[in-house]
Amino acid sequence: MIKRYFITLFLVVAAISVIYTHQRVNVNSPWTRDGQVSAEIISIAPRVTGPVTKIHVSDNSHVKAGDLLFEIDPSLYVTTRNKMQASLNQAKALLDKAKNEATRAFNLEQRTSGALAELTLNNLRNAVDTAQANVDLAQASLDEATLNVEFTKVYAPTDGFVTNLNLRRGSQVVANSPVFALIDEHSFWIEGYFKETDLVNVAPNDIALVTLLSQQGIVLEGEVESIGYGIAKQDGSTGNNLLPNVNPTFQWIRLAQRIPIKVKLNSKPADIQLRVGMSASIKIIKQPT
């Protein structure tokens, strides 16, 4: 009988010890399985409209900054540039003519005072200023046309991975409308969502240990880069008939909200390729306070 009580007491003490130890570990080293890999995603969009003539990359391929991605038919923009060049040449010729007429008139006025009316001299000055303004306008139009010709070639803005490329030769692309995504390979981080009760004394630069679901035998070391300052409100959003959506809750239960924490990896093995959306577990080692 005594032995039975002793065993029961031992099991109770052991259970309390395990629960206490587990609680202390969670308090000092909060952990979550609700993490995923994130990265900066750049929307690749052309600056001009036209049909695609050449595609130099394939879906899921790796590119370097400055690599040529695809080309747009430049013929229309080359023609426009040539027209702007002709307009500039014409404007310069008119400017030379206005300057010559003004110079001749001013020389005549210097030799024979009163030979020309003051209004005529003012009109000649204005003609030169107008011609100069037309030259500047034509030069600006030529610069714009030259840029449009250059924009028919779309280059990679950074090192990264081409994603969701459905572009085909002959496809019509529209200026400033994205056609595929480029994932910046230097921008990967881990996003973890921790219960608000676990964030006590968590601070930037705390050590973070990351385990990917696809590489559970490898622990990646990083540090807390930042902690989110807000999440979306669930209750109060507009539902049917413009009425607010309010989730039912029990008065005796208060669910802890989850706050995003951004983890920057210090390094990773060369044989591990991070991919946006991969699942990860994150454990934070709090610094002593």
From TrEMBL:
Keywords: Coiled coil, Membrane, Transmembrane, Transmembrane helix. Residues 187-284 form the p-hydroxybenzoic acid efflux pump subunit AaeA-like beta-barrel domain. Belongs to the membrane fusion protein (MFP) (TC 8.A.1) family. This is HlyD family secretion protein. InterPro entries: AaeA-lik-b-barrel, MdtA-like_BSH, MFP_Efflux_Pump, RND_pump_MFP. Residues 81-148 form a coiled coil. The keyword Acyltransferase does not apply. It comes from the Bacteria.
